[in-house]
From TrEMBL:
Superkingdom: Bacteria
InterPro entries linked: DUF1398, YdfO-like_sf
Protein name stated in the entry: Uncharacterized conserved protein YbcV, DUF1398 family
SUPFAM superfamilies assigned: YdfO-like (SSF160419)
Source organism (scientific name): Flavobacterium terrae
């Protein structure tokens, strides 16, 4: 069973979106099967086998997530982040401004899905291996 300390250690290595695939590989190695990250404060819910679930604490002061979704701006910001042009906090701020409430990772499907405040799926990407 993985711990919050292990999750924090893995996340500490992520400097930009370019580091994301290695982060996912490390989480899989720990036994994480999926997780959700909430944009408003950065907390996450990580799931493992046998109903093992842990909640991480807030990572930063609360952000205001826009009620208005700007999908095109989000896609542009996401691309920049994945290319290593922005850090994690910048990406979270960009998500909030574009109306992204959370993202959900599935290790089995190797997908990252972004949702708005109404639970609408805005984008699903395949995680590169």
């Amino acid at each position: 069973m993985f711990t919050i300390a292990q999750i924090k250690e893995a996340h500490s290595k992520v400097k930009s979106g370019a580091d994301f695939p290695n982060y996912i590989k490390e989480l899989v190695g720990l036994g994480v099967i999926g997780y959700e990250t909430f944009v408003f404060d950065g907390h996450g819910v990580f799931e493992g086998s046998e109903q093992h679930k842990i909640h991480t604490e807030s990572k930063y002061d609360d952000l205001v997530v826009s009620d208005f979704v700007n999908a095109e701006q989000f896609k542009s910001d996401l691309k920049a982040h994945q290319q290593g042009k922005t850090d994690y906090m910048t990406f979270c701020n960009d998500c909030a401004k574009s109306g992204i409430e959370k993202w959900v990772i599935s290790m089995q499907k190797l997908t990252c899905t972004y949702f708005d405040k109404n639970g609408n799926e805005l984008l699903q990407e395949i995680i590169p291996q």
